[in-house]
Amino acid sequence: MNRREFIGWVGVGSLASSLPVVIAACSSETKSQSTTTPVRADGFQVVGTVADLDKNGQLLNDNTAGKVLAIKDPSNNTKVIAVNPTCTHKGCVVEWKQDQNAFVCPCHGSKFASDGKVTNGPADQPLATYITKVEGNEVLVKGS
Q: Which domain of life does this protein belong to (predicted)?
């Protein structure tokens, strides 16, 4: 076997040995960092704790209804607002910008009010919202 064939086989061997890692990384069974909790009989699902909401200013989670971004209501700090953070323009994930009192899309600059309504395009549809409540230290959401 000459040097060229040997190097070719080494390359094939390394590719083949890394294939299981690539397949596992791309598997639909791979869980995101956020874990989902079961849906309760009343339709609500826990998305985080009030302590985490106070600490981070928001909760970003995936649940059975989809992605959830929960924040404290800017007009009433005892209430929680939750939206699906998927921008209705091109599907980027919006971020809550407390200084702007708005959900802002980092991709194309769309802005949404805390209730999900569009305040600045290019998006022309509001963010989907969730019904929310706080029980004890848990923040719960339910699809609206």
A: Bacteria
Q: Which residue has the higher pLDDT, 143 or 46?
A: 46
The pLDDT > 70 percentage for the chain reads 79
State the pLDDT at residue 3: 77
Homologous superfamily of 45-143: Rieske [2Fe-2S] iron-sulphur domain (2.102.10.10)
Q: Is the torsion defined by CA of 71, 35, 50, 80 positive or negative?
A: positive
